[in-house]
């Protein structure tokens, strides 16, 4: 890492628009392309504070600032265009959280890096629309929240309630939602609203280690902990009525359920296995990076094969219902804050390779959140907002308090203003189930 004073660091940064900053070559060694990051005035302060704190004397160790990580990714072999920081960007493992990049698959020097995906592989959000309205469920809100908490396995160490054998997991890995459909857990039309219709046809469970499968077997069908949740939400605002109608959202007051989950120990082990393999490949092929957390392998190597795919615009595997609206983007808020549905844009394809924000993005580390916040205060504030909450680990609530995250509305408004995605629906929570 290049060590400079803060005043020297900011000479490499240039504001190119009200919502976008450029990171010039030289900010970090060996940059092949420039970096950019999207922020509004509020998010900008958080990004620069992160850099300023890292420049203080004695600030050694821990994660690099997000700007430095964006620049390190810009130094990876074969990168094209630019290294992009989306509005939820903050310090992560190798790649910043909210950092994306594209690589030229025809370039033999191009690499694939697990850091670009992270440890919670396939972490994502589902939004279920209902035919219910807020007035229908408010009298039953507490009972519904308790029933969800009783029936959804949540929290660290939680195990699934579905009896599973090794063969079941193998089939689930290869069949995707077709397995869920066969077992009676989804409706056929659910597949019509998932990318690739809920199944990767080239999935090969033999590529997954036995240790990963062993960790994943008891956890299938669980919500987990951390920032994962199930929420009962109410449609609060509709920005694009035509696109919302395509998604089955009719009017304000409609009830939805948002589920945010990931791959738990299974995904973590898959990532760990991939990092080990790629560290060996780096030594064998003499690949150098600015940060050892950016372990990678050439795309055309044995380690890199099977790791790459990206759909062009209007690809037939994007659900038919969304070919005209743009792909729906589900942005989960933090505990007690609103969530959003966005849609993809042609400008987003050009500027950010069809990527947009994932969520709000952390403003405080988990450790700092535990030090600075009181869990009872957090619970009281949620109650005052009329939000029912059920948590498996109340003292971990501080880590997921709204104060621990950036303002999701700032993040979404930045995406909308920059044209990389378009606001469609805003939802507010009335009940939260967490690990």
Automatic annotation (TrEMBL):
Q: Which GO terms describe its biological process?
A: tRNA processing
A single Gene Ontology MF term assigned here is: RNA ligase (GTP) activity
User: Where is GMP bound in this sequence?
Assistant: 227-231, 332-335, 339, 358-361, 434
Listed GO cellular component terms?
nucleus; tRNA-splicing ligase complex
**Keyword terms, alphabetized:** GTP-binding, Ligase, Manganese, Metal-binding, Nucleotide-binding, tRNA processing
EC no. given is: 6.5.1.8
Q: Key word Manganese present in the record?
A: yes
Q: Which residues bind Mn(2+) 2?
A: 260
Reaction(s) catalyzed by this protein?
a 3'-end 3'-phospho-ribonucleotide-RNA + a 5'-end dephospho-ribonucleoside-RNA + GTP = a ribonucleotidyl-ribonucleotide-RNA + GMP + diphosphate; a 3'-end 2',3'-cyclophospho-ribonucleotide-RNA + a 5'-end dephospho-ribonucleoside-RNA + GTP + H2O = a ribonucleotidyl-ribonucleotide-RNA + GMP + diphosphate + H(+)
Q: What's a Pfam family in this record?
A: RtcB
Q: Which family does it belong to?
A: Belongs to the RtcB family.
Name the record gives this protein: 3'-phosphate/5'-hydroxy nucleic acid ligase
Species of origin reads Cyprideis torosa
Tell me the classification of the organism that encodes this protein: Eukaryota, Metazoa, Ecdysozoa, Arthropoda, Crustacea
